[in-house]
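Notebook B, p. 112. Complex prediction, attempt 2.
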Amino acid sequence: MKTINLERQTVRELNQALHDQAIECTEREWEVLDPKGQHNIACGLDQNISVDIKGHAGYYCAGMNKKAHITVHGNVGQGVAENMMSGMVRVKGDASQAAGATAHGGLLVIEGNAGARCGISMKGADIVVKGDIGHMSCFMGQAGALVVCGNAGDALGDSLYETHIYVKGTVKSLGADCIAKEMRDEHIDELTALLNRAGVDEDPSAFTRYGSARQLYNFKVDNASAY
Amino acid sequence: MCGIVGLYLKNPALESQIGELFTPMLIAMTDRGPDSAGFAIYGDEVADDWIKLTLRHPEKNYDWKALAEKIQDELDIGVEWFQNAKVAVFKLHTTDAIAEAYLAENACDVLILSAGQSIEILKEVGLPAQIAETFNLRGMKGSHIIGHTRMATESAVTMEGSHPFSTGMDLCLVHNGSLSNHNRLREELKREGVKFETDNDSEVAAGYLTYRLQQGDTLTEALEYALKDLDGFFTFTIGTRDGFAVVRDPIACKPAVMAETDDYVAMASEYQALTTLPGIENARVWEPEPSTIYIWERSSDDKRG
């Protein structure tokens, strides 16, 4: 295992060392010490490696991740795993706003709470949050699934496309065009698999599914006078 | 973009170290605000029949001693004072109204940065590290302190446009964000008699709070009105005589993180600014909710929201 201490080396040096693994993988296991809330830690990885960040990370941690498994043993700032393509990012603490924003693939697990705009414009990633999520989460979510074991804030799934949302707790309010939907067997299966992959012990039947009412897909000519 | 930091000590034993604890917090927010910085420190209280003013003159060699002697002679009151760079702290055995009227009449080029029993506001244009050095922030003692590092977006980079802004006796405001209805609101407040020094949007928020408090609102009520009347993005931290308050707009895109231990409550725009605090590894760390008013004060130690 290779250890990099961010009190002695810069984030840029760390990220370069991790990027070099994309060309030739010489080390599968990495440990990052003393992150101290610095931004852009472990961004843009493109190799099947595991990275353990021991402490709190700042903004955009694990952004644009491909293939790598990244675990943050602490909290993260805004934009964790933004635009992730594949791999897995696990946050042991809380995440700030815009967790998993625009992510195309892979799995993001947040063991604490996530702030506002969790999964905003997500495009195919799966996100599992053990705690609560903030307002405007999954805004314009296009594909993938968002699982919330706690409660959701205001305007969940506003202007939603086809992301599947599962919430166990309460939803403060639903956004425009987001509605509660029937949990069919295929959804129980999908949720069971997601909870298993995330290592979260919850009963899938206790969740409610939310999805798009598909009323905003096309412009309605009757509304033309509103503009 | 701007940076906000605040530190409120629950443990009075740390009061002699507040400058030492706070300086790295302010400097850590340089990336968010490299053009000006300032802070409001609370402590060294004067008696209730005295008033403490932080005064500033653009000339470093301004004759503060002569001003102090003139006030002493002409108003026939007790005067204590000390100078810190371009700023002087005057403690006067009189009321705020008399002191401010006297200064307006007799020293109109002296700017009053703060007034109260406890507060001192110090701010300048420059890097946070330079400003901490200029005012010897590290050596300061006090019960609580809030600071700001500015990256100007809405108005000029000047001392007057930097934060904190005084919002009344022992009150001040720092702001991260931008207000979109500040021009109209400034005109409305001017009609109500509120005075403004700059075109700065944050000064309008400060003037708004001053006005609400003058109408008899409590701080919580004033902030509830602010959530309704201020349009734009904001994370505010408000310093009060006994503590500080934090409030974010309903969208809450401007960051804020809080940390609490048995010894202190700390607030910053980013967690990076909190990493030098003692015991931060085991502190409770969380983000304040949108549209929620948080107040920590020596008397109550509570959260209202």
